[in-house]
Amino acid sequence: MNSEELRKLFVDRGALLNGHFLLSSGLHSGQYLQCALLLSDPQIAERLGKSLAEKLKEKPDLVLSPAIGGIVIGQEVAKALGVRHFFAERENGKMVLRRGFSLSQGQKCVVVEDVVTTGGSSQEVIDMADLKGVQTLSVLSIADRGLGPHQFKVPLESLLKIKIETFNPAACPLCHEGTPAVKPGSRTSMGEGASSLYPLDNGRPSK
């Protein structure tokens, strides 16, 4: 799947949103890529996983993903590669492996994320792997929001690179306009104020 096909898919599936969003990085943005809407279709998830797996020059021993965004696409990449998939969860502010997942020194992994914004979550997973003596070969993502250059010491490969402006909360023009920020995909975004979220389709809500 090339970048033009993927961008069209985001629009057609109502997954490229316009509004006022609070990102997991703490930054604000007027646009948001809701990958969960794409990945909810198993056939699309499988295609995206295969497309990302094809970007690798070396097969890893396993795939690591940050929860929650990287879980589905990480599983699909692992399936395409024929390797295991572990996901890391934040516990007391730190990315850790739970649920019986464990790493062995000398293993090689790839880190798979849905969207890379600042790259913070993926870097935390890389750091976690480093502490266990696991070599990270590369970072893979469905989309790169174009805030690079990222500080990864390994290559970043994405299916879609798209420049979406972000703002520090203190300098956010949407905040200054009085528009409330919502967390995409959270329970609150589906209640009051949800009508402010709409896909980019020539400024009209998608049906």
Characterise the protein shown here.
The chain is an alpha/beta fold and 207 residues long. The protein has one domain (3-199): Rossmann fold, CATH 3.40.50. The chain is built from six helices and ten strands, in the order H-E-E-H-H-E-H-E-E-E-H-E-E-E-H-E. The protein has helices spanning 3-12, 35-39, 42-53, 71-81, 120-131, 173-176, and strands at residues 16-22, 28-33, 62-66, 84-91, 94-97, 108-116, 135-144, 156-161, 166-167, 198-199. It has a six-stranded mixed β-sheet, sandwiched between helices. Strand 3, helix 4 (71-81) and strand 4 form a beta-alpha-beta unit. Mean pLDDT is 86; it is low at 186-207.
Short structural summary:
The protein has 207 residues and is an alpha/beta fold.
Strand order of the largest sheet: 5-4-3-6-7-8
Instruction: Determine the CATH topology.
Output: Rossmann fold
Helix content: 25-40%
Report the average pLDDT across residues.
Answer: 86
Structural class, please?
alpha/beta
User: What's the Cα radius of gyration?
Assistant: 17 Å
CATH class: Alpha Beta
Shape: globular
What quaternary form is this?
single chain
Q: What is the percentage of strand-forming residues?
A: 25-35%
Largest sheet: 6 strands, mixed
Q: Report how far apart the termini are.
A: 25 Å
Examine the secondary-structure arrangement and name the CATH architecture.
3-Layer(aba) Sandwich
Strand tally, please? 10
**Secondary-structure element sequence?**
HEEHHEHEEEHEEEHE
Number of helices: 6
- Return residue spans where pLDDT drops below 50 for at least 5 consecutive residues: 186-207
Total of domains: 1
